[in-house]
Amino acid sequence: MARAAPLLAALTALLAAAAAGGDVPPGKIAVVGAGIGGSAVAHFLQQHFGPRVQIDVYEKGTVGGRLATISVNKQHYESGAASFHSLSLHMQDFVKLLGLRHRREVVGRSAIFGGEHFVLEETDWYLLNLFRLWWHYGISFLRLQMWVEEVMEKFMRIYKYQAHGYAFSGVEELLYSLGEATFVNMTQHSVAESLLQVGVTQRFIDDVVSAVLRASYGQSAAMPAFAGAMSLAGAQGSLWSVEGGNKLVCSGLLKLTKANVIHAAVTSVTLHSTEGKALYQVAYENEVGNSSEFYDIVVIATPLHLDNSSSNLTFAGFHPPIDHVQGSFQPTVISLVHGYLNSSYFGFPDPKLFPFANILTTDFPSFFCTLDNICPVNISASFRRKQPQEAAVWRVQSPKPLFRTQLKTLFRSYYSVQMAEWQAHPLYGSRPTFPRFALHDQLFYLNALEWAASSVEVMAVAAKNVALLAYNRWYQDLDKIDQKDLMHKVKTEL
Ligand SMILES: Cc1cc2nc3c(=O)[nH]c(=O)nc-3n(C[C@H](O)[C@H](O)[C@H](O)COP(=O)(O)OP(=O)(O)OC[C@H]3O[C@@H](n4cnc5c(N)ncnc54)[C@H](O)[C@@H]3O)c2cc1C
Ligand SMILES: *[C@@H]1O[C@H](CO)[C@@H](O)[C@H](O)[C@H]1NC(C)=O
Ligand SMILES: *[C@@H]1O[C@H](CO)[C@@H](O)[C@H](O)[C@H]1NC(C)=O
Ligand SMILES: *[C@@H]1O[C@H](CO)[C@@H](O)[C@H](O)[C@H]1NC(C)=O
Ligand SMILES: *[C@@H]1O[C@H](CO)[C@@H](O)[C@H](O)[C@H]1NC(C)=O
Ligand SMILES: *[C@@H]1O[C@H](CO)[C@@H](O)[C@H](O)[C@H]1NC(C)=O
Ligand SMILES: *[C@@H]1O[C@H](CO)[C@@H](O)[C@H](O)[C@H]1NC(C)=O
């Protein structure tokens, strides 16, 4: 009897603490989706809650999600997200943490094709480029650069806020803390409007800005300024990708976290309450059948959009009910073509003289957005880019699957074509309200941020935010949620 007393006391203390909702860590956490968002949030959650919390990650397709590769002629190539801006700080951290490396750069020249001729060509000599841009477009180029830099500089504040443990429960609060009314306004006005206002000419927007937006989002300069600025930043800075494939970051993070990856499609999340504390029942389906588990915290790390919902997830038992997000995604097709480019189509009858590796388009040849001579994810030291007259692997991005006739236009002949069809980015329209990160006490929606801007690094930022939000909420640290004037606060905190 005497020996049981301390155990009993310990149990009582534990129960009391649990009742207070206080210092006991959560037992189990579910993450739905193993793309970069889900993998990163699993890692951050473990970082904050400690190694003893069990993290289950549900994935109905393949780990990596929109980070994926396809094999062509015995080599692997990126078929989803291809590259990241140098200032993608979370992604840079992951690569370091996992002992991965940046893939070696193999230089190639870019140009913008306007349907009949190239409207802009990159030359070998940087200064000459600037001179040409100046000659064609005057000061527009510099104004664009200043506009993008200002947005990026403000966006980078998020890393400081996150390092200090601050989180936001909605997209609007997050944007406001970074760029005040200007950022929120930039989600409600178009790229074109914003650029015209700072003195960029319509011609520069039509020739250059539109081509970059088409290449990154498959959308036009009518898309919102905030998402546009983030993708234009990508066109300016130096870009990088991961040796061996970008998706290695996802599998690496999940392995590092020792997350329990469950290959199943989550079908519903149902709220149960026990003594005032929320408990979430996650139901899932796989070849074995249907099953369910209970969790203290649930993170949805996949888009929840209504039409063509690729996730097919429903919520039950919530009052008020959790509505599905309205809106749809931009279909994007990536075709990896192993073959010979038809350089005549681009005005170069002699294929040996074709100088470009990356071709962007204005909306004139509307059946494709970009055409790139790509390198495999593993680049050996002896690797060299294929000459334009040789058979090479080309990556064509288009809004719809390419017809045979279209392929025959772009390529003299080809050995193989493989296509990946994606729901790539939100189709940005005029959206009065954003979805929120916090759907319920401990139920979170990571991809809410995709409705402001959609990129791998933005999803990593959302993952860190959601992990901090869950942590601050769990331990009732309300001073770290939705705080105003953070620039001032982080300056005075040491
Ligand atoms: C062709 C293409 C090119 C791109 N290029 C770039 C680029 O160059 N740079 C860049 O930064 N970004 C780029 N992006 C965008 C980038 O890929 C995405 O923003 C990012 O990868 C999204 O990650 P995520 O984890 O939020 O979502 P996803 O990667 O979509 O992950 C969600 C995961 O959840 C799973 N899932 C869905 N529903 C369920 C369910 N009910 N149960 C279980 N699992 C479920 C899915 O199978 C998927 O694996 C590109 C995207 C595409 C498609
Ligand atoms: C919002 O942006 C638009 C277009 O750039 C501009 O005309 C408007 O004055 C801005 N409003 C505010 C409140 O900043
Ligand atoms: C490709 O690179 C990755 C990461 O460096 C490595 O793990 C893998 O073995 C490489 N694969 C090949 C075929 O060289
Ligand atoms: C699993 O549940 C779904 C509904 O969510 C149902 O349609 C399906 O028949 C169930 N499958 C099995 C094997 O019970
Ligand atoms: C779903 O997507 C397909 C092609 O991507 C489209 O044809 C169809 O209309 C979409 N369905 C809805 C309900 O929007
Ligand atoms: C989603 O559910 C609908 C109807 O229940 C079904 O027809 C569709 O195939 C499902 N989609 C996916 C991607 O599972
Ligand atoms: C190549 O492009 C030219 C010019 O557009 C076109 O006439 C020709 O049919 C295309 N295809 C081949 C195989 O040359």
TrEMBL record:
> Which keywords annotate this record?
FAD, Flavoprotein, Glycoprotein, Oxidoreductase, Signal
Q: Which residues form the signal peptide?
A: 1-21
Q: Which GO terms describe its biological process?
A: neutrophil-mediated killing of bacterium; prenylated protein catabolic process; prenylcysteine catabolic process
Cofactor names from the entry are: FAD
* Pfam families tied to this protein: NAD_binding_8, Prenylcys_lyase
Q: Quote one Gene Ontology molecular function term.
A: prenylcysteine oxidase activity
Top-level taxon of the source organism: Eukaryota
Alphabetical list of InterPro entries matching this protein: FAD/NAD-bd_sf, Prenylcys_lyase, Prenylcysteine_Oxase1
Domain Prenylcysteine lyase residues, every copy: 120-483
Family assignment?
Belongs to the prenylcysteine oxidase family.
* This protein's name: Prenylcysteine oxidase 1 like
Tell me the gene name. Answer: PCYOX1L
